[in-house]
Amino acid sequence: MTLPALGALACPNCGQGLDQADRRLSCPDGHSFDLAKQGYAPLLAPGSNATTGDTADQVAAREEFLSSGAYDPLLAAVAAASVTDAPGVIIEPGCGTGHYLAAALAKDAGREGIGLDTSKYALRRCAKRVVFEEQGPGDDEPRRAAGTQMRLAAVLADAWNRLPVRDGAAAAVLNVFAPRNADEIARVLHPRGALVVLTPRLDHLRELVDALDLLSVDPAKPQRTADQLSSVFEAERTDEISYSIGLGHEAVRLLVGMGPSARHHGAAELDAAVAALPERVDVTVSATVTRWLKKS
Ligand SMILES: C[S@@+](CC[C@H](N)C(=O)[O-])C[C@H]1O[C@@H](n2cnc3c(N)ncnc32)[C@H](O)[C@@H]1O
Ligand SMILES: [Zn+2]
After folding, report:
1. Element (H, E) at 245
2. Minimum-distance ligand to the CA of 67?
3. 57 C-alpha vs ligand 1 centroid, how far in Å?
4. Which residue is closest in CA terms to ligand 1's atom 16?
5. Where do the structural domains in the chain lie, given as residue ranges?
6. Which among 108, 230, 90, 241 is positioned nearest to 174, based on CA atoms?
7. What is the phi/psi pair of residue 19, to 5°?
8. Could you tell me the pTM of the whole model?
9. Domain 6-294 is classified in which CATH homologous superfamily?
10. Residue 30: which residues within 8 A CB-CB, separation 6 or more?
11. What are phi and psi of 249, to 5 degrees?
12. Interatomic CA distance for residues 284 and 242, integer angstroms
């Protein structure tokens, strides 16, 4: 099977286009890359740091938590903001399991997508992801039914390095709770394309941050993000999304397990802290989705 979005991919060594023969991708200079057994394309640029990716446990927790629908209002806002009339693919550096990318592709029947991540566990899941023609919030199972298609390529790549994507090949770039390299995003984005950035607000998950001593959002972060992007982009619109969800202990464990605090808590310590919570906790979900356009 030809890898979706092949025409938008670039050799990580020399930047030229890639061709596919069987399970091997190669550029005109003879650099070649064999697709992993699990279907993703290993296109790490020289000097990349591939140790930054989520662990198997984090990915499993993310998969299960997101498929519960608890973040569907965020999913809907990102997907709506990703629609553009620019030609090209939709890409997501730090795509995780491809949850947001698939929803963006489902909005736009003709599009293909590229999910990039340094976690092989996330990419295994992303490579199998099918896009539902009529995908709506919550409709997130890896089913192969009529009306579904393999429309995205999963790619092992470091978001802090040169992306293996051709100049101007992206109609939209998604950035959802993930690393953000403004110069590379600007390089791959089509002049009429859109960058969709979701960032947590200061009160995101605040009840759990307090009760479980989780990492909190850095108050200086929104300004840093704006400073970083505004040299190349201008904000076209911003949606602030805030709502409350009632979570039981298992959902709390998944939510903590999929995030950065998972690396800082021993399992036993976390279990004890969760057990001390009321059976159902009301948790604030709060994020900003901004659609940025390239400055002309
Ligand atoms: C918090 S998760 C968000 C995943 C996805 N966007 C979502 O919201 O479901 C951050 C993702 O970034 C990936 N990541 C971390 N460092 C990275 C890097 N340098 N390059 C590419 N991906 C990276 C992690 O493996 C993880 O999948
Ligand atoms: Zn090459």
Report:
1. strand 233-247
2. 1
3. 14
4. 52
5. 6-294
6. 90
7. -110, 160
8. 0.93
9. Vaccinia Virus protein VP39 (3.40.50.150)
10. none
11. -60, -40
12. 7
User: What is the token pair recorded at 92?
Assistant: 């997501």
Closest CA to 289 of 82, 107, 117: 82
* Ligand 1 atom showing the smallest separation from residue 198 Cα: 8
Q: Are 201 and 85 in contact (CB under 8 A)?
A: no
* Positions in the chain whose pLDDT score sits under 70: 132-149, 262-264
* Residue 162 alpha carbon to ligand 2 centre in Å: 13
Ligand 1, atom nearest to 97 Cα:
9
Q: Which of 71, 101, 117, 161 to mutate to test the pocket of ligand 1 (most atoms within 8 A of CB)?
A: 117
* Residue 138 CA to its chain's centroid (Å): 17
CA gap 186, 252 in Å, rounded:
36
Q: Across all residues in the chain, what is the average pLDDT?
A: 91
Q: Which residue from 38, 45, 49, 27 is spatially nearest to 187, judged by alpha carbons?
A: 45
Tokens of residue 5, six digits? 């979005």
Residue type, 163: L
Q: Report the pLDDT value the prediction gives residue 278, as an integer from 0 to 100.
A: 95
Could you tell me if the CB of 131 is within 6 A of ligand 1? no
| 197 DSSP β-pair partners | 175, 290
The bound ligand whose nearest atom lies closest to the alpha carbon of 29 is: 2
**Closest among 36, 37, 1 to 22, alpha carbons compared:** 1
Amino acid sitting at position 34: D
